[in-house]
């Protein structure tokens, strides 16, 4: 009798603890949301939009890297595919509403992701990274030579247009809230995916792929779907980024960009929802600050040093380390 | 002028030779990657940077100390190899037990640092390295003109590849390396200093890359960014060949160089992409690669 009471006590206290943790998370999320809503009053909206675009890009990568355990070194291809498609459509068809350009751009990346995925998931681990890198290089060559991309110069003067044909996006504040809405949509989608049964299988694949196979899961199909979703979200980030900056450039397709988004994800914390957002904010701010100062030419080596430091000293990333710290000190 | 498929023989054989030379560099680089992968089970993303260091080292040794080509061809790889051992000892070793993704990212970070720092000092436009006196000129083979230096590149690369194969397959040190590739823990149990072997292997793999760089200095534009694009091609080569065998890495490297050369003749726009397309086809038909062992 006594033991059962203690057991129910423990269960109740666990439930209570989980509830209080959930409440804390909810409060944290609400505070962050409020900050994002008020931010343009304090900070330059275009700068904030840049952070949000890269945050969405990193969130997309994290779905693969953090939750499925697949390191894609070719995500720049999806960013660029979304970016160029949207840029091309909005420049060439003036009647097109902005959201249509973004939707088609995202769909293009989704399809490209399907193509990449079908080839790349045939190998695992570091081979996967090398294959995605090589495929992305192929896409890069395509964008260099394709007639509509403007080659080395890129695409300039892409009109922001009207959202749903109604809201004029040339106003930075309107644009900001649109980007924020898209970002939140992507973020919540990933949150939903990760928490779903599908997401649980992805985590199982990350932790022990042979066991997931032996449990009867068609691992390749799960990986492929995760890859396609990630590619689509990366494309969405690219599309929106083109609308914000009104340009699409080869930088987006370069392997350097693939490396940068990995750094954002890793630095913020792989496998945490908020990590990539923090990482993107950190890297974009750092790059901006460096470009203003005398160290403008030293961005690459500094990013490289952060890479080395993160891998050597805090692999869980900023958010991951904070979570570990909280867990250790709360219990 | 005789023609094959509407292309003059001289053009065809000329491009073919350039292809073989590119292939020789691919072979040297993928060989180094394969050697490192065999024992350390990591992909060395800094391999392109090491190739670049070899080339830059050759140029700078000449500019600063007047070191001649032959000495630099030996000295630059040795210096870079020692640098590799230092990197292995202080960085790679500390994360040896972790997921291989981390070692890949670590070497990527190292590559970014090396490339970025040298770009700031020397710019991206490229340094000039004059051809050694002995290799000026060339010989006429009747159907094509063969510059001496290009012939030397092919011979030297093949010699080094053969030497590496011989060392790994036929010598005692090589047998340790192969045993370590199979099961390094068991080897440690037999009293062999595995950590030392790992350091030496990484140093050796990196040295091969630097040797390729030193060899490339007189014919390619030497700049801090020369390593990054060739590395991606070499990754594709490695995926095509599979990293299972030494000979496989060399053969695939040469083959891909030739394929690239042919494409330059018949469809120049596609020459940059052809190796990646071959990779896709190979992955669809034979995912483990042409010489790969694992499924």
TrEMBL record, chain A:
This is Branched-chain amino acid ABC transporter permease. Its main location: membrane. The lineage of its organism: Bacteria, Pseudomonadati, Pseudomonadota, Gammaproteobacteria, Pseudomonadales. The keyword Lipid metabolism does not apply. Pfam families: BPD_transp_2 (PF02653). It comes from Marinobacter azerbaijanicus. It is found in: Cell inner membrane. The keyword Mitochondrion does not apply. It comes from the Bacteria. CDD domains: TM_PBP1_LivM_like (cd06581). Keywords: Cell membrane, Membrane, Transmembrane, Transmembrane helix. It is a multi-pass membrane protein. The chain crosses the membrane at residues 27-47, 54-80, 100-119, 126-148, 174-190, 224-249, 261-286.
TrEMBL record, chain B:
Its main location: membrane. The keyword Protein biosynthesis does not apply. It comes from the Bacteria. It is a multi-pass membrane protein. It is found in: Cell inner membrane. The keyword Transmembrane applies. The chain crosses the membrane at residues 20-40, 49-67, 73-92, 104-129, 149-168, 196-220, 232-254, 266-285. InterPro entries: ABC_transp_permease, BCAA_transport_permease. Keywords: Amino-acid transport, Cell membrane, Membrane, Transmembrane, Transmembrane helix, Transport. PANTHER family: ABC TRANSPORTER ATP-BINDING PROTEIN (PTHR11795:SF442), BRANCHED-CHAIN AMINO ACID TRANSPORT SYSTEM PERMEASE PROTEIN LIVH (PTHR11795). Belongs to the binding-protein-dependent transport system permease family. LivHM subfamily. This is Branched-chain amino acid ABC transporter permease. It comes from Marinobacter azerbaijanicus.
């Amino acid at each position: 009798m006594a033991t059962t009471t203690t057991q129910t006590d423990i269960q109740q206290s666990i439930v209570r603890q989980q509830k209080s943790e959930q409440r804390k998370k909810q409060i944290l999320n609400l505070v962050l949301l409020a900050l994002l809503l008020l931010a343009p009053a304090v900070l330059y909206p275009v700068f904030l939009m840049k952070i949000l675009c890269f945050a969405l890009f990193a969130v997309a990568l994290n779905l693969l890297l953090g939750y499925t355990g697949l390191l894609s070194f070719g995500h720049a291809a999806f960013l660029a595919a979304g970016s160029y498609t949207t840029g091309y459509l909005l420049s060439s068809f003036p009647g097109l509403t902005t959201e249509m350009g973004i939707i088609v751009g995202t769909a293009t990346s989704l399809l490209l992701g399907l193509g990449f995925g079908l080839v790349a998931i045939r190998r695992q681990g570091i081979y996967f990274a090398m294959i995605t890198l090589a495929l992305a290089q192929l896409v890069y060559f395509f964008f260099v030579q394709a007639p509509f991309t403007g080659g080395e110069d890129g695409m300039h003067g892409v009109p922001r247009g009207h959202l749903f044909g109604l809201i004029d996006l040339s106003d930075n504040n309107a644009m900001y809230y649109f980007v924020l809405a898209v970002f939140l949509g992507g973020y919540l989608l990933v949150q939903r995916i990760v928490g779903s049964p599908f997401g649980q299988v992805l985590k199982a694949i990350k932790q022990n792929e042979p066991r997931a196979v032996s449990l009867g899961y068609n691992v390749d199909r799960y990986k492929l779907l995760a890859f396609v979703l990630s590619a689509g979200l990366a494309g969405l980030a690219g599309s929106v980024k083109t609308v914000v900056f009104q340009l699409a450039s080869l930088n987006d397709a370069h392997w350097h960009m693939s490396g940068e988004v990995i750094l954002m994800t890793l630095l913020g914390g792989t496998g945490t929802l908020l990590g990539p957002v923090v990482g993107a904010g950190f890297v974009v701010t750092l790059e901006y600050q460096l470009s203003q100062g005398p160290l403008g030419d030293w961005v690459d080596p500094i990013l490289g040093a952060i890479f080395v430091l993160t891998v050597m000293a805090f692999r869980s990333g900023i958010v991951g380390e904070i979570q570990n710290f909280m867990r250790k000190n709360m219990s | 002028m005789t023609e094959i498929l509407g292309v003059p023989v001289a053009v065809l054989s000329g491009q073919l030779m350039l292809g073989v030379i590119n292939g020789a560099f691919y072979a040297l680089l993928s060989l180094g990657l394969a050697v490192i992968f065999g024992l350390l089970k990591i992909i060395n993303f800094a391999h392109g940077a090491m190739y670049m260091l070899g080339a830059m080292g050759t140029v700078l040794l000449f500019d600063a100390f007047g070191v001649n080509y032959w000495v630099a061809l030996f000295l630059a790889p040795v210096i870079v190899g020692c640098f590799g051992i230092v990197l292995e000892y202080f960085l790679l070793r500390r994360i040896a037990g972790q997921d291989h993704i981390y070692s890949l990212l670590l070497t990527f970070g190292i590559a970014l640092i090396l490339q970025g720092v040298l770009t700031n000092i020397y710019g991206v436009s490229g340094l000039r390295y004059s051809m050694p006196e002995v290799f000026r000129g060339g010989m006429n083979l009747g159907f094509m003109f063969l510059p001496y230096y290009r012939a030397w590149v092919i011979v030297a690369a093949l010699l080094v590849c053969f030497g590496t194969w011989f060392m790994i397959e036929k010598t005692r040190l090589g047998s340790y390396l192969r045993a370590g590739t199979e099961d390094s823990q068991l080897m440690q149990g037999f009293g062999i200093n595995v950590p030392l072997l790992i350091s030496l292997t990484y140093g050796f793999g990196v040295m091969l890359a630097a040797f390729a760089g030193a060899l490339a200095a007189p014919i390619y534009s030497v700049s801090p960014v020369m390593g990054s694009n060739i590395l991606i091609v070499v990754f594709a080569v490695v995926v095509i060949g599979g990293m299972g065998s030494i000979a496989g890495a060399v053969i695939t490297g040469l083959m891909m160089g030739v394929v690239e050369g042919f494409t330059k003749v018949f469809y120049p726009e596609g020459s940059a992409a052809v190796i990646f397309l071959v990779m896709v086809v190979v992955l669809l038909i034979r995912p483990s690669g042409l010489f790969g062992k694992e499924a």
